Predict the 3D structure of the following.
Amino acid sequence: MTATEFSSQLTSLQSTLRQFTYRFTRSREESQDLVQDTMLKALTYRDKFREDTNLKGWLFTIMRNTYINKYRKMKLAKTSTDDTKELYFLNVADNHTFNRPEKSVEFKEMWKNVNEIRDELQIPFKMYTTGYKYHEIADHLNIPIGTVKNRIFHARKEIQKKIGSL
């Protein structure tokens, strides 16, 4: 396929791509950005496209991967946007902190309850709450991943019972 044919087919699929992006973005501007990024990557990596491949499917894969990578990058950066009028959420006080004395007591009380559950439930639960993934916990404890999920579930239930009985 020549560069002209490739560009022509790419242009003809642009409106289809734009419609498909609304599944991801729900925003006109983000949708246009995603289509542009997809088109740019398709043109940049045209040499990677094989003749026996479905161009539309290839473009959708590029688009999906571009969106996922952008999402992961935003999540990693922990950026948040406030689209409300007058930036309402940026100006709201943070009530979800353990820096206040009464919240510190609640936090200590909660961890006291965590420390009172059985070790077989406590260890996976603590590992999970400190950021370990299920498969990492399973590897570390040499147990199946289903057992890890089960123990974390039961740890939560026991902690909820303890908190509820206070």
The radius of gyration is 25 Å. The mean pLDDT is 81. Residues 74 and 80 are 8 Å apart (CA to CA).
